Amino acid sequence: MEARRHQKKVAGDDSLEASDALPLPLYLTNAFFFTLFFSVVYFLLLRWREKIRNSTPFHVVTLTDIAAMVTFVASFIYLLGFFGIGFVQSIIIPRAPHEDVTDDDEDEIADLDRLMIKDDARKTPCAAAPQFDDLKIASPKAAPKKTEEVIDEQDEEIVKLVVEGKIPSYALESKLGDCRRAAAIRREALQRTTGKSLEGLPLEGFDYESILGQCCEMPVGYVQIPVGIAGPLFLDGKEYSVPMATTEGCLVASTNRGCKAIFASGGATSSLYRDAMTRAPVVRFGSAKRAAELKIFLEDPLHFETLSLIFNSSSRFARLQSIKCAIAGKNLYIRFSCSTGDAMGMNMVSKGVQNVMDFLNKQFPDMDVMGISGNYCSDKKPAAVNWIEGRGKSVVCEAVIQGEVVAKVLKTDVASLVELNMLKNLTGSAMAGALGGFNAHASNIVSAIYIATGQDPAQNIESSHCITMMEAVNDGKDLHVSVTMPCIEVGTVGGGTQLASQSACLNLLGVKGANRDVPGANARLLATIVAGSVLAGELSLMSAIAAGQLVKSHMKYNRSSKDVASIKS
């Protein structure tokens, strides 16, 4: 104990520890408080037992009882202070299992952890960082000005510990309290571990606090994707400038040409005919008969009101719309569909489903919930159930493009577009066995808008389900074109939508955040803008193919003029 006090004195640490409670050797102090704690607990249990037998009210206490309770609290505080904090830290931030750590290393790490986590009582996940002036691992010299390539002396010590596995990389934010600093240290440790440079991957200029605990773990920088603007898209009587984040040349320019053709022809109209996010758990019974009994129970209209009340209690915005079941032997797949306001809604519908599963377990105690998602939803996978039943927002968008505009803006003719659409988007896709892919390049536009507005890019898979239809109207002079998209999965709150860049793009479209007047209106409007943009993209690409311009335009706008051989690895 004296040695520890000497170490604290040398380190300049005047703070009190639990072991300073008595002027005794550490093992005697611990033994005293252990004995005191369990003795008092035993005494209080006997007293409570006696009061129960004699029917004495618990609030009637003697001086002995009060003294015992005070002693209990004091001994508990001591034991918690001495053992509890270290124990909790060992669970939250475990040591690397592959490291062989000596006693001297343990002492060094314990001192470092104590200094790094000292007074770490932040109200927010990543508050202002405690200054490392308290650390004695480096001399208090003036730190050099930080750049992306330079690590100061204090952070250098931490980088070495991360490389050696003594500090887990994932724990840097919680230890340092500075998200940007944690990213810089992790980045440097990664470069040393792999021997590969991250030059070119930016570190500065990003708010790392905004992604902590919600968007990305263990960041080392961010990827720059240019954002272009297509439009104005004249849709349902309003004009929209559509942000598209992409690295594919011609994409924004092509979509912009489609917007021009739509605008010159009086605009496009859209209809959102379904709005329902889905989640489908899978449950198992001991027999197929029991699985069928639950299917009948769930699809009985008499039970829907009860189930919807249970489901809707999970959120202010979640509203159960339907339950559809599919049986496979002893297994039952239950597809819940619900509206989710302005959120994309996956988490919201999952909470509601969990409530219903808890209720059904009481009604069917032999039911085993195998998974909250059984792939009958179906999320981030091409699936016929989504193509037929829809998922998220289902939108149809159409426009009549005048023959004169087709010739002057799109550089082709109506008959050629109609024939090409039939041969390519319909027959060609059928020959390929396409599932929801009866279009030219809907996923191009969907992905670009999703990345720009903070949507989940992986949901591009089902969101790009689209069938493009073209036919000649007005005696063959004009072109009627439409896109039907049954699975547009978008939200204007939650996830990446709250990041600064993505939020700015949503604001450009007028759909930032939640709609206070009509919940869900912003997300529905965003879905129609996505469909309208796809309509523009389909028009332009199909016209380029019909006119034989596709290869020529890509050679002009989608080819780099840089000498690839001169680029350093």
TrEMBL record:
Coiled coil feature spans: none
Cellular component, GO annotation: endoplasmic reticulum membrane; peroxisomal membrane
Pathway the protein takes part in: Metabolic intermediate biosynthesis; (R)-mevalonate biosynthesis; (R)-mevalonate from acetyl-CoA: step 3/3
Location(s), subcellular: Endoplasmic reticulum membrane
Reaction(s) this enzyme catalyzes, per UniProt: (R)-mevalonate + 2 NADP(+) + CoA = (3S)-3-hydroxy-3-methylglutaryl-CoA + 2 NADPH + 2 H(+)
Gene Ontology BP, a term: saponin biosynthetic process
Enzyme Commission numbers on file: 1.1.1.34
Pfam families in alphabetical order: HMG-CoA_red (PF00368)
PROSITE patterns: HMG_COA_REDUCTASE_1 (PS00066), HMG_COA_REDUCTASE_2 (PS00318), HMG_COA_REDUCTASE_3 (PS01192), HMG_COA_REDUCTASE_4 (PS50065)
Membrane-topology annotation of the record: Multi-pass membrane protein
GO terms assigned for molecular function: hydroxymethylglutaryl-CoA reductase (NADPH) activity
InterPro entries with a match to the protein in the record: HMG_CoA_Rdtase, HMG_CoA_Rdtase_cat_sf, HMG_CoA_Rdtase_CS, HMG_CoA_Rdtase_eu_arc, HMG_CoA_Rdtase_N, HMG_CoA_Rdtase_NAD(P)-bd_sf, HMG_CoA_Rdtase_sub-bd_dom_sf
Main localisation: endoplasmic reticulum
Keywords in alphabetical order: Endoplasmic reticulum, Glycoprotein, Isoprene biosynthesis, Membrane, NADP, Oxidoreductase, Transmembrane, Transmembrane helix
Transmembrane regions listed in the UniProt entry: 24-45, 66-88
Keyword Endoplasmic reticulum annotated: yes
UniProt record similarity statement: Belongs to the HMG-CoA reductase family.
PANTHER family, sorted: 3-HYDROXY-3-METHYLGLUTARYL-COENZYME A REDUCTASE
Protein name: 3-hydroxy-3-methylglutaryl coenzyme A reductase
Organism, as annotated: Prunella vulgaris
